[in-house]
Amino acid sequence: MDSRHTLDLMRFRSAALRVIVDTETDPAVVAGELSAVLDQETYLDDEDATTPWTLWKTGLAALKLLLEWDAAVRDASPDSDRFRLAAARKAKLANDGLKSAGFSPVPSLRDALDAIESVSDVRDVVAIRSLLAAVPLPLPVLAPRKQRQRNSTGETSHPLAVCVLELGGTPVTNAFVVEPNRMSDVGVVVRISDLQAWAQKISVEFLSVLKPTVVTVPEIITSPVPDPDEDGLRSVAGNGNFVIHVAQQFGASPLEFPVVVRAHSNDKEEVIPVGGYSSLRVRTFDPSRDMLAGQPLLDGRVSQMFSELRERNDVQDDEKEAFFRFFGAVVRAALRIQEGRRFPAGSNPSEADFQSALLDLLSADPLVAGQVKEKTAAGGGEVDLIFNHITCELKVERDSPASPDSAVGYIGQPVQYASGSGSQLSILCILDMTPKQSPVGALPNYITWLSPLLHGLTDPSYPALVGVVIVNGNQPLPSDWTRRRVGTVPDDS
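-> structure tokens emitted (493 positions)
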């Protein structure tokens, strides 16, 4: 592989990432943009089908089909499932090829292919986009120097710089998330092929059109031309400080700072094309996208709910941001209570016990720590928990299994508390302590939006929305299900 192909691949990856990590939520639009990126990349068509790069492209092609599946489901198309089946088939063939070749790719790439092969819920497509975006692909190795010196026409090759970036000691493979006004150390390593003999010095800089009061980028790194290594490449490394001084709005695209590499002499200067990670892409922490639960399926469900809220024009932005922080923290706390068996089979927690356990976990969550209050007057009553005018009402269910459908019976109280505190958004968190006749499903099944009718209104300008989280306690041990009959869903086929 010569340096031109290396640069082509890096451009392909960069273009693909821009599509799959974009905040655009219309699956038909994303599918079209991804299709255009895939059509432009042809070099990998001639490569071994089991390399990480070709497998990643296969994953992207399968993702395009899943996005088309999502679009068809939204349009109520009767044959929408054909897209999901085609995507799953692509992923299965890729995995079968890996097994037969005995090749072990990047583990996260295998995870992405497995997720595509087993997907059954259209809501999981968001999580699969995140899985594919997070795959760290190895840089293609440049061909030996003697093969790179001349191209197919016999002309001398032009220099190429391959760049690797680190932020805070972590390799940058995608848009990096930073806290506003927090200094980060940026490291850069540049390897240059086919450098002209006249070059005496190399400089590396990050371009920015923003004022220093908005962002601080590392100063220009300069170095005398180093000796070539055993591959004939010359390496330049350096580091500097990076700070974003203001927070971006939630949902904002990353800021981009291109890396510019130049060769210098006393009377000459030339910009060297950059492959690899040719720009530093950074955005500030966004509570609607970051620090969710760390589980792809659960994160995908929460991200989908947050995306739906972001698109609404009938809710104020500051209220959305407060909800993102509080609801995300409640989901993380719910996951820890459920996975940690805080209320196991045989326990009998009161609503006060549930509130105490939840508040302990929220107090340790950096997004809301020290800001969640309890027993605050609102709407003529006393709300259980409140964060920045977002109320959270707690319930313990002992009689009938709690579900998103049955939660409708509880939403009147959080809605009135919310309206009393001047908010449209609220949270209802239910601890289900009913006997379990079937195993509990994944937590995303128990998280949803509910939108109640409001008194005297059929089309309110400021509708109420309740985020529902159901925590399942009173669960038996996994081994207790042995030889215990569990009902199954009828096979429609």
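Residues 296-481 form one domain.
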